[in-house]
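Q: Got a minute? One more chain.
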Amino acid sequence: MKRAVSLSLGTSRRNFSTRLEIFGEEVEVRRIGCDGDLRQLASLLRHFDGRVQALGLGGMNFAYRVGARAYAVAQAAALRRLVRRTPLVDGSLLKDTVERRLVVYLAHEYGLDWPSLRVLVVSALDRFGLTEALVREGAAVVIGDALFGLRLPLLFSSLQGFALAARLLLPLLRRLPLTWFYPTGAKQDRPGNSRAPVYRRVQVIAGDFHFLWRYLPADLAGKGVIASSLWPEECALLRTRGAAWVATPLPAVEGRSWAANIWEAALTAAVGRTRLEGWGEEVLWSRLQEAGLRPRMEVFHGKTGR
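A: Always. Here it is, folded:
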């Protein structure tokens, strides 16, 4: 049996262990949250290095990508150097391939008319591929990195404008502790109750679920949600607050939609990192569909598009 372990700065409340078959291989998948404790995370990375087929790093990216440029995140780079024998992934491969395809998939399979929709992407730095795909398909995209990550009353409605600002600031921001921008540990346990005006102007909210959860609108009536790392109780709250539908790039396993790094670690354990990276977007998407690992769509209220 292959083994994949995701080690995260996030809450331990979301820990789990399960087994599933991926591409003909039985894979044991485990998630361990460190409740924001970097020392514990570093210790566990050393412990599992060489003992499992793949490791996932949750709660941070190796780099922030803006177009063709990538800015290495100092905190993640230090952790990455601790792992020498086991492939360590952060989910970026899936974010830049499967999540791009999800946008087209939702239009074709569920009739979402992107040119008629305004979409809030809570963090384009974390989901640049998804953001690009939404813009390419004609959606009016509102980018919330400054508002959600830096607590600045600033929104970007142009990907080009956001990219310019990001390139100016990222040489500094990539060196700052992740906890300055991103909810970790117990901060991931409490849903928000936001009444920010931006929510009234959008029909879809997309991106990192923990950003969304921390600033969750009090009223989600009629809105769609695109996210990952979505547990049953969180899905239930989205429904209670009126969300029309929720979509994730890969299916739920035992009711849980995993974070990108967990899925990438599981896929890497099954086929190997070199093979997974070598497939490219087209082959990877096709192989996932053939294996039954299709996006999840749950309609709560009303319709998606058709």
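A: The chain is about 35% helix and 20% strand.
Q: Perfect, thanks.
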